[in-house]
Design brief:
Layout lengths: L1 E5 L9 H15 L3 E7 L18 E5 L5 H10 L4 H9 L3 E5 L4 H12 L4 E4 L6 H5 L2 H18 L2 E4 L2 H10 L5 E3 L6 H4 L7 H5 L8 E5 L8 H14 L27 E5 L6 H10 L6 E3 L6 H9 L2 E4 L8 H8 L4 E3 L7 H4 L3 E3 L4 H13 L1 H18 L2 H17 L1
Parallel strand pairs: 1-2, 1-4, 2-3, 4-5, 5-6, 6-7, 8-9, 8-11, 9-10, 11-12, 12-13
Helix pairs in contact: 1-17, 3-4, 4-6, 10-11, 10-15, 13-16
């Protein structure tokens, strides 16, 4: 099958959709399909294709940034600069897979695919949930009414990452078919796992002591402020002076997993989306700045080194369609502590970690239980690894999406 993926950007700082686009494309090429990605030319570094068998066959076509001036700026705003390339590429492919929707290039892709009678599949990546649409509500409502709603209604199929997202798409009012296919990981990118201790060696501020890892965008929806409050409670429960004692029973500080007198750290990894300043101020207010480390974004093997060495991975997010970071952490055998809004109940069902409400007291209790129980953490890590191998690899995702495309072709 000849598959054309269309995304507004492959810039490395654009988060999940760019990573997903490159990984899906590589996995489909690895299955023997002819795969192309069309995107806008990036000003900075781009998300790289993974080095797996077949990925070298993925073609990347870019729409030039333009010559500037009023005419060039107008063309980019309305996406008309993309139309000739879209027309050419869609004619050469069997199916068009559009990622995200908030860019006119994606609307033109839908319209051109329909004009050429080619099936077009949309991956919203969580943008059609009620929460996502509530952010900048007025602006999005106008854009949806003027441009995007009609394009969404014209796609052949929507790809949802979870049953939760499928329900949200139905609430949005999409009447067509929805295929539920989760994201995944490439074990080829992760294995062999980094040697234990590599992240500690790169970050002496951790002093070789256990740490909770947060790895995501520093955005208000990710629950980082809740995590910092919970972490302060954990420190107090373990014997550090602090203003807020934990309300849950706590084993002795010398329980398995923590040496006597050793306190954990909180490592915060990710690009700043408005929360770095408030989090630094919150940590200072709680008198835990010496234990809270904001490390900025870390990519590639460094990310996996952080996951291998952490005592647990924590993401108390208020909204996730599917978090690849959680799947990667489990693939690295990290125990996970996540919120129900991450929509990965399988983590708890499989025994890979805890799914707890976005409440500082409850989150602190789960973190405490994880930190002090070394044997339990190891068991959770093994369970998480098995869960990923069995259900959340990109090869399985690619196979499921190809089957969905064929279903869309038949309609």
């Amino acid at each position: 099958m000849r598959v054309l993926h269309v995304t507004y950007s492959l810039a490395a700082d654009q988060g999940g959709p760019t990573m997903v686009t490159t990984r899906v494309a590589a996995a489909q090429a690895g299955l023997g399909h002819e795969v192309t990605i069309l995107t806008r030319e990036s000003a900075g570094p781009e998300t790289a294709l993974p080095t797996i068998p077949g990925s070298e066959r993925v073609k990347i076509e870019r729409i030039a940034r333009g010559a500037g001036g009023l005419r060039g700026a107008f063309a980019k705003v309305w996406g008309s600069d993309a139309k000739p390339k879209l027309r050419e590429l869609i004619a050469r492919h069997d199916v068009v897979h559009v990622h995200n929707i908030w860019d006119p290039i994606l609307t033109h892709a839908v319209n051109e695919a329909r004009a050429q009678k080619k099936p077009v599949v949309l991956s919203p990546h969580g943008i059609l949930t009620r929460w996502a649409l509530s952010e900048k509500r007025a602006k999005k409502a106008v854009a949806m009414a003027l441009l995007y709603r009609r394009a969404i209604d014209r796609v052949s199929m929507v790809h949802a990452l979870s049953t939760f997202e499928r329900e949200e798409i139905a609430a949005f009012g999409f009447k067509g078919p929805v295929a539920v296919v989760p994201n995944g990981v490439f074990l080829e990118e992760i294995d062999p796992l980094p040697a234990p201790g590599a992240f500690f060696a790169a970050h002496p501020e951790l002093n070789g002591e256990p740490y909770v890892l947060f790895l995501s965008r520093l955005h208000p929806i990710k629950g980082l402020d809740i995590l910092v409050d919970a972490f302060a409670r954990v420190l107090t429960a373990l014997g550090a002076p602090g203003p807020t004692p934990s309300s849950s029973p706590m084993p002795e500080a010398h329980a398995p997993g923590l040496r006597s007198g050793v306190l954990p750290h909180l490592a915060i990894v990710g690009p700043d989306f408005g929360m770095e300043g408030p989090i630094r101020a919150q940590a200072a207010r709680l008198n835990i700045s010496d234990r809270v480390h904001l490390m900025g974004p870390i990519f590639g093997r460094g990310k996996y080194e952080a996951m291998v060495d952490c005592a647990c991975f924590c993401l108390p997010s208020g909204h996730e369609a599917f978090s690849v970071a959680i799947a990667e952490a489990m693939a690295c055998r990290a125990a996970v502590v996540i919120s129900p809004e991450c929509h990965l109940p399988e983590a708890a069902t499989a025994g890979a970690g805890f799914v707890v409400e976005r409440d500082a007291v409850k989150l602190a209790s789960a973190l405490e239980r994880t930190l002090v129980d070394e044997h339990g953490r190891v068991a959770m890590g093994e369970a998480g690894r098995k869960l990923v191998v069995d259900h959340f690899t990109w090869a399985k995702v690619a196979e499921a999406l190809i089957a969905a495309y064929r279903g869309a072709e038949a309609r």
